[in-house]
Design goal:
The structure is a single chain. By secondary structure, the chain is mainly α. The protein has helices spanning about 25-35, 40-60, 60-70, 80-110, 110-130, 135-145, 150-160, 170-195, 195-200, 210, 215-230, 250-255, 265-275, 285-310, 325-370, 385-410, 415-450, 460-475. The longest helix is centred in the last third of the chain and has 47 residues, at about 325-370. This is Major facilitator superfamily (MFS) profile domain-containing protein. Pfam families: MFS_1. It is found in: Membrane.
């Protein structure tokens, strides 16, 4: 039995005996067999792809408060949070509706076409979002941006398939790192580049395009990055096996296994195992890790929405009176900390504590941190800046720990021919949770501002208390019988 801190050995990852000419999956398997080292080039390419496709997800957070105000949909300041929540939710709702479809399609036509479609759609609809002339245009472009985003689950499957089993932890950790960095760099771009005529009047005049559309510049900047990365896909290899095995009842099972097996008895044994695992929804090690992932993503999305709204709201509402640039500064520091943490600290923590105990420690730390946010409004600078940066770094690293651990558990619970579909299911469910998170967070935040001066649990305290309840569910889920560890790892 492998230790809890070790990545479970995925199904069907034995060294193949047969390679088929013209099959990209076989070409990748041969490449891994001949080059046992870490595929740094492919990992970096994958990291950049995931980064740029995730940038639009949260780039709007620093300026969303001001964008809703300028679009004129909110009649009162206290209602801005209510309408802002639905803009954030529209992206996740769109992604939830199609994530399984993209996963199934990636298992049929390949990983690369799905990644290309996603990047191109991000380029188009993120640009249109920056040109939104009314609230409903903003909602619809964000919805379509999510609807056509099929890369997240596909990239996770790709990270496993371009590397040998002993390097899967690094690959999945890099996926989480790029995702986490994107959720920080995106808001930083939004915070620095939104409303450029006010921040850089010498470069952008009020009569220019950027004066008419004050939130277009950050969207345009991200779209340009997407275009550059789209060109790089010329050198991106495919990993899906495309050879066929005829006259067999279970074609999908045997397509995957014929590459790996030549002995008939071992073939039947492995084919039976693959067929047994066909029911992804009844694969409890997979589904239980997906649930943990979903709860954590709900926490992350709700926190991201509330943090920006709370930091930018006036102190009379319990906020910090930060500008979008102030929020961007905090998120840049947080992003750098996540990169360093995931690269140098996280692997050692998991090695010592294991996947499950690392997640438990992270949830407990997160719960403690959330209680410290409301009193921060009473601090003056520079202490406020120091404390809020430390809290933001620790909170984000806690979330990154839990998400990466759940990634490893998910991808090691299924064979290759189910991996993209399994990740599609995870992405769909996660997107549903994330769709509810900003909408719910916006409604709660709007309510909190109207009850800021309540005698029991003032509004700002109630908001962070409710976030703590969500984190408590994360902690509970890391225990049996809720979380089930794949048989390849020891249970907690």
């Amino acid at each position: 039995m492998a230790g809890e801190g070790e990545a479970a050995r995925p199904l069907l990852e034995e060294k193949p005996d047969v390679y088929f000419d013209g099959c990209p999956g076989c070409a990748m398997d041969r490449r891994k067999a001949e080059n046992p080292g870490i595929p740094y080039g492919l990992f970096f390419h994958m990291w950049i792809i995931n980064l740029v496709t995730c940038l639009p997800v949260s780039s709007l957070f620093p300026f969303l408060y001001f964008m809703i105000r300028d679009l004129g949909i909110a009649k009162r300041v206290e209602d801005i949070g209510f309408y802002a929540g639905f803009v954030g939710a529209s992206y996740m709702l769109g992604r939830a509706l199609t994530s399984i479809f993209w996963g199934i399609l990636a298992d049929r036509i390949g990983r690369k076409p799905i990644i290309v479609i996603t990047t191109f759609s991000s380029l188009v609809f993120n640009t249109l979002f920056g040109l939104s002339m009314n609230y409903w245009m903003a909602i619809s472009t964000r919805f379509l941006l999510g609807f056509l985003n099929g890369s997240l689950g596909t990239i996770r499957a790709y990270a496993v398939e371009v590397s040998r089993p002993e390097h899967h932890t690094i690959g999945l950790s890099l996926v989480n790192t790029s995702w986490a960095i994107a959720l920080i760099i995106g808001p930083a771009i939004g915070g620095y580049l939104a409303q450029p005529t006010e921040k850089f009047p010498n470069l952008f005049s009020a009569d220019s395009l950027f004066g008419r559309f004050p939130y277009f510049l950050p969207c345009l900047f991200i779209s340009i990055i997407c275009f550059i990365v789209l060109i790089s896909y010329i050198w991106l290899p495919e990993t899906l096996h495309t050879h066929k095995v005829h006259k067999k009842k279970d074609d999908q099972c045997r397509e995957s296994l014929i590459t790996y097996l030549s002995d008939s008895k071992e073939f039947d044994k492995q084919c039976s195992t693959s067929t047994k695992n066909k029911g992804l929804l009844t694969n409890w090690p997979l589904m239980s890790s997906i649930v943990l992932y979903c709860i954590t993503c709900f926490d992350d999305m709700a926190y991201s929405e509330i943090f920006s709204l709370w930091a930018e709201s006036d102190k009379k509402y319990g906020g910090l009176s930060f500008s979008s640039e102030d929020v961007g500064n905090v998120l840049v520091v947080t992003g750098a900390s996540i990169l360093l943490y995931q690269t140098f600290i996280y692997p050692h923590i998991v090695k010592v504590l294991g996947l499950i105990n690392s997640s438990r420690v992270a949830t407990i730390l997160s719960m403690v941190l959330l209680f410290t946010y409301p009193p921060m409004a009473n601090l003056s600078r520079p202490w406020l800046s120091i404390v809020i940066n430390i809290a933001s770094m620790l909170k984000s690293c806690s979330i990154a720990t839990i998400v990466t651990c759940s990634f490893i558990l998910q991808n090691n619970s299924v064979p290759q021919d189910q991996r993209a579909t399994a990740n599609g299911i995870a992405t769909m469910l996660m997107s549903l949770f994330k769709a509810f998170a900003p909408a719910g967070a916006g409604i709660v935040f709007s309510w909190a501002q109207k009850h800021q001066h309540a005698s029991i649990f003032p509004g700002d305290q109630m908001v962070f208390f409710l976030l703590d309840i969500v984190v408590l569910f994360e902690l509970i889920w890391t225990f049996k019988p809720f979380l089930d560890i794949p048989k390849q790892s020891s249970s907690s």
